[in-house]
Amino acid sequence: MKFDPSKKVLVIGRAGMDIYPEPPGTKISDVQNFSAHLGGSAANTCVALSLHNIATDLVTCISDDAIGEFIFKKLNYYNIGTRHCLKIDKSHQTQLAVVETILENNQSILYRNNACDLKLDNSVIEGINFQDYGAVFYSGTALSSDPSRSAVFLASEKAEQAQIPQIIDLDYRPYNWESDEVKSNVYQKIMNKVDIIIGNDLEFNIADNSQNGFLLAENIIKAKPSIIIYKMGENGSKILTSEEPPRNFGIFSVTAIKPTGAGDAFNGGFVSSLIKGKNIDQSVKIGSASAAIVVTKVGCSSAMPTFSEVESFISNNEMSEI
């Protein structure tokens, strides 16, 4: 697995609008005012990579309406490439999420009726020259239904032909999946194709359709050389590679104001560090620091730290030992 840092990362998944009650700490039921932010796991990951000085192109479908225009303006603001973002009829809706900046009993309410990002189809993938990219990153929600599911697998075939690294954040969300059996089969199929898998213990359990997702992770490592980030929340993470036994990593302890955004921030810090040639240990530390910073701020995309912020944070904070 070799990254080309001179090339962009292609990111496939959803973009949306996140709406936060203001001021921070306000419950949705009590809100008087909101602030609007770019959202969606793939778009958030693009922002995180961009702020770590890694250029990206986003692949998604966005509704041809005022909310879609908001999304495009925000993507342009963060210097995220949009040439593979397809505008589609506004009868297919861009995701909206109403999210509280509250740590305990946090409410995050998603509106994804007829979600336009799941209308991504093979024609968009066929129009991409994969040789232009140094890696492909998938957000797992794009696998939850067709035609988006088929488009992801076509992208995986083309990335394999181009011999470029493939990364997936399992990003499991229960909506749109037609059955547990399909969900398990689809996840296992893509996990056996990619080079880096990022997910939490719940997501690996779901992919295995059991309560023994860690065994699935171990079996994948045996079958194909890869890197697996097995996240366990406040208990840190385990890193699996084909070269050595699983290793435990801790977390950075911070005073969080919300639980959301950490995963996308980790993706940006971790993947950008690997692309820059840092080793796995260094990359996990940078990803973990990025995640710790995001949960101390309002928003997800707008809370993503720059690389210099992460460096300063690491120099002033210790990662816990597990």
Features:
322 residues, alpha/beta, UDP-N-acetylmuramoyl-L-alanine:D-glutamate ligase, 9-stranded mixed sheet, 4-stranded mixed sheet, 23% strand, globular
Characterize the structure shown.
The chain is an alpha/beta fold and 322 residues long. It has one domain: UDP-N-acetylmuramoyl-L-alanine:D-glutamate ligase. It has helices spanning 41-51, 66-77, 122-126, 148-162, 180-191, 201-208, 213-223, 262-275, 280-294, 307-316; strands at 8-12, 16-22, 33-39, 56-63, 81-88, 95-99, 108-111, 133-139, 166-169, 196-200, 227-231, 237-241, 247-249. A nine-stranded mixed β-sheet has the order 5-4-1-8-9-10-11-12-13, sandwiched between helices. A four-stranded mixed β-sheet has the order 3-2-6-7. Helix 1 crosses helix 8, helix 8 (262-275) runs antiparallel to helix 9 (280-294) and helix 9 crosses helix 10. The model has no long low-confidence stretch (mean pLDDT 94).
Describe, in short, the structure shown.
The chain has ten helices and 13 strands. By secondary structure, the chain is α/β, with parallel strands linked by helices.
Order of helices and strands: EEEHEHEEEHEHEHEHHEEEHHH
Biggest sheet overview: 9 strands, mixed
Report the C-alpha radius of gyration, rounded.
18 Å
Helicity range: 25-40%
**How do the strands of the widest beta sheet line up side by side?**
5-4-1-8-9-10-11-12-13
CATH class: Alpha Beta
For the record, the count of structural domains works out to: 1
Overall 3D shape:
globular
CATH architecture: 3-Layer(aba) Sandwich
What is the SS-derived class?
alpha/beta
Estimate the strand proportion.
15-25%
